[in-house]
C-alpha cells in the first residue's frame, strides 16, 4: 500500500517545462526593419538582442551607474547589427545624434553604430544624421537586489524599451522601429 501511494504521488507531479524567458541571456525585439515586420527572440547562433557594460575613460560618468550598450542583431537577409551606447543609463527618452566609429571600444557620449552586409557581402557602416536623431526610450529597468533590499545598479537584470531609428549609408538607409527587452 505504501509503495502504491508513493508511486501515485510521484506520477501526479507536474513536469517542469523550460521557459526561454528564464534564461539569463533572454531577449526579444518586436517591430519593423525597413517596413518589414520582425519578431526575434534570442537563439544560440542566429538573431539576438543583448546588453552589456561599457567602460569609459571620462570621469564625468563615474558614479553608481555604469554606461551600457544594447545590441539588436538580425543575422538573416541583410545581416544587420545595431548597437546603442548609453552613458547615462536611466528610464526615459534619449535622442542620440552621434555615430560610433567602427570597432571603437571607448567613447564618452551616447552613440549608435549600425552595419549591414549587402548582396555582394560588403559590410557597410550606417550612421545617424543629426537632423534625424535616434529615439531610444528606456521604459523599465529591473535590478538584482542584495539581502538588505538595495539595488545592484551596476548590473541591471532586465532592460525594456522602444527604439525609432533611421541610419544612413550614402543613399541607402535602414529603418528600425520597435519594442525590446533584454537581460
TrEMBL record:
Reading the lineage from the top rank, the first entry is: Bacteria
Q: What is this protein called?
A: DUF5025 domain-containing protein
Query: What's the source species' lineage?
Result: Bacteria, Pseudomonadati, Bacteroidota, Bacteroidia, Bacteroidales
Amino acid at each position: 500500500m505504501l509503495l502504491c501511494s508513493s508511486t501515485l504521488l510521484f506520477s501526479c507531479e507536474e513536469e517542469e517545462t523550460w521557459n526561454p524567458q528564464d534564461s539569463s541571456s533572454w531577449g526579444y525585439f518586436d517591430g519593423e526593419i525597413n517596413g518589414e515586420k520582425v519578431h526575434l527572440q534570442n537563439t544560440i547562433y542566429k538573431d539576438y538582442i543583448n546588453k552589456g557594460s561599457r567602460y569609459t575613460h571620462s570621469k564625468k560618468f563615474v558614479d553608481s551607474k555604469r554606461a551600457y550598450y544594447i545590441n539588436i542583431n538580425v543575422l538573416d537577409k541583410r545581416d544587420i547589427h545595431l548597437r546603442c551606447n548609453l552613458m547615462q543609463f536611466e528610464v526615459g527618452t534619449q535622442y542620440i545624434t552621434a555615430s560610433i566609429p567602427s570597432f571603437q571600444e571607448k567613447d564618452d557620449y551616447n552613440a549608435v553604430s549600425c552595419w549591414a552586409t549587402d548582396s555582394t557581402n560588403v559590410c557597410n557602416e550606417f550612421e545617424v544624421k543629426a537632423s534625424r536623431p535616434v529615439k531610444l526610450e528606456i521604459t523599465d529597468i529591473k535590478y538584482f537586489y542584495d539581502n538588505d533590499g538595495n539595488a545592484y545598479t551596476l548590473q541591471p537584470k532586465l532592460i525594456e524599451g522602444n527604439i525609432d531609428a533611421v541610419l544612413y549609408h550614402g543613399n541607402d538607409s535602414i529603418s528600425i522601429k520597435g519594442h525590446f527587452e533584454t537581460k
